[in-house]
Design goal:
Signal peptide: 1-24
Order of helices and strands: EEHEEEEEEEEHEE
Distance between the termini: 166 Å
Structural class: alpha+beta
Biased composition (Basic residues): 213-228
Keywords: Signal
Strand order of the largest sheet: 1-9-10-3
Strand content: 15-25%
Number of strands: 12
Region (Disordered): 211-230
Length: 283
């Protein structure tokens, strides 16, 4: 199982990760049983009997730093080499053991691999996916995994507990976003309400001014109408005066032409051209 370039991942308590080259001096930068930055002397040579080399899985599983698995089941780790060339290959293959014991492995899928032939000492990122349905059962809290590779390398702990955290964080973010959205909407509503109120006040003021102006115009209209009536009345009186004068002139002329001197009553009878006079005498 640990021959060639094959890696082994025990997903239960520890996560064992080793460089894929059998002769490669490389290992994960977070390693089982290693405190701080791994050194060349920390590199292990795993085997079927000893998946993590000389590092005991059981005694180091719960005290080692774990790399969190993402919610989608992917794991990202750094692989550090100590030599250039093929000897320092950071390219790996992965197998997983859900129990964390190191005797029941299932192949994982490497999505982003390291450099199989680096030109210098370097640290490369490796991304792999846990097998579908993987549920870690090893270690305290049953939330760690084990990954190992053939050749030089070491083991690293992986925790699935962290994979459950992103949704909670997302829920918190969603709540915060909802609060922000509500606040923004409320503010917008307040501004809209204030604007509407101001618009209503402005409309009321305009309406009042318009009504007042309209009233004045109406008043002026009445005045104009009254003036027109008065003017017409004056005109009518003038016409009546002229007609009366004409009437008197006609009567005087008729009297003179008929030589009328003693007339008790008379009336002017309008006929067509109003030129006839009818006289009535009371004896």
């Amino acid at each position: 199982m640990f021959t060639g370039t094959k890696s082994v991942l025990a997903c239960a308590s520890i996560f064992l990760a080793l460089a894929a080259q059998t002769s490669g001096h490389a290992m994960p930068s977070i390693a089982l049983g290693v405190k701080g930055t791994p050194q060349r002397s920390d590199v292990q040579r795993p085997s079927t009997a000893s998946p993590c080399g000389t590092v005991a899985i059981a005694s180091n599983l719960d005290t080692s730093t774990a790399i969190p698995a993402a919610a989608d089941g992917t794991v990202t780790m750094n692989v550090q080499n100590f030599n250039a060339g093929a000897d320092g290959s950071t390219s790996v293959s992965v197998q997983v053991d859900e129990t964390g014991v190191g005797n029941k492995f299932i192949a994982g899928t490497v999505k982003t691999n390291g450099n199989p032939n680096p030109t210098k000492v370097e640290t490369d990122k490796v991304v792999f996916s846990l097998p579908a349905g993987t549920k870690c059962s090893g270690g305290e809290g049953q939330e760690s995994s084990v990954k190992t590779t053939a050749g030089f390398g070491a083991c690293t702990v992986v925790s699935q507990q962290a994979a459950a955290q992103p949704p909670a964080a997302k829920a918190t973010t969603t709540k915060a976003a909802a609060v922000k959205a509500t606040t923004t909407t409320t503010k917008a509503a307040a501004v809209k309400a204030a604007t509407t109120t101001q618009a209503a006040k402005a409309a009321a003021t305009t309406a009042a001014a318009k009504a007042k102006t309209g009233g004045k115009k109406h008043h002026h209209h009445h005045k104009g109408k009254k003036a027109a009536v008065n003017k017409q009345a004056v005109k009518n009186r003038m016409i009546e005066t002229v007609e009366m004068r004409e009437y008197e002139e006609v009567v005087a002329r008729e009297f003179e032409e008929r030589n009328v001197r003693d007339v008790d009553e008379f009336e002017l009878e309008a006929r067509d051209d109003s030129s006839f006079l009818t006289f009535a005498r009371d004896d």
